[in-house]
Amino acid sequence: MRSFLLFGYLGDGQWVWLGTQTEPKLEITDAKENASDRLTVATLYDSQPWDAKWLSTTYHLDMQPLPENWQSFKDENEKQYILSVLSGAAP
């Protein structure tokens, strides 16, 4: 599924996660089409797609492993825990 994560820019390369837009949620059925859509939107805004390489190069943010058994986390507190782990705020 593709949902829209909302971030705010604090400056100096720091971003804060604001939440997830609940609608629309779109099923990703074609990875190439999805990549093309990201590029189209980025081009419209004179930007580029946010991907792992771009985040690492631009903001030195490297991908972090998900917590063990993350797939079983269902409620809002567990979602916040995952975000804390990914941001380095939790063990």
**Which strand order spans the largest sheet, edge to edge or round the barrel?**
1-2
Question: What oligomeric state is this?
Answer: single chain
Mean pLDDT across residues: 78
Topology order in helix (H) and strand (E) letters: EEHHH
Q: Quote the distance from N terminus to C terminus.
A: 28 Å
Q: How much of the residues is beta strand, in percent? A: 25-35%
Shape: globular
The number of E-state strands comes to 2
Question: Can you count the helices?
Answer: 3
Helix fraction bin: 25-40%
The Cα radius of gyration reads 15 Å
Helical/strand content category = alpha+beta
The biggest sheet, with number of strands, parallel, antiparallel or mixed sense and barrel status, is: 2 strands, antiparallel
Any low-confidence stretches, pLDDT <50, length ≥5?
Answer: none
Search tags:
91 residues, two-stranded antiparallel ribbon, alpha+beta
3D architecture notes:
- With 91 residues, this protein is of the alpha+beta class.
- It has 3 helices and 2 strands.
Quick structural gist:
With 91 residues, the protein is α+β, with helices and mostly antiparallel strands.
List the helices and strands and how they pair.
Elements: E1 2-11, E2 14-26, H1 31-44, H2 52-59, H3 76-87
Antiparallel strand pairs: 1-2
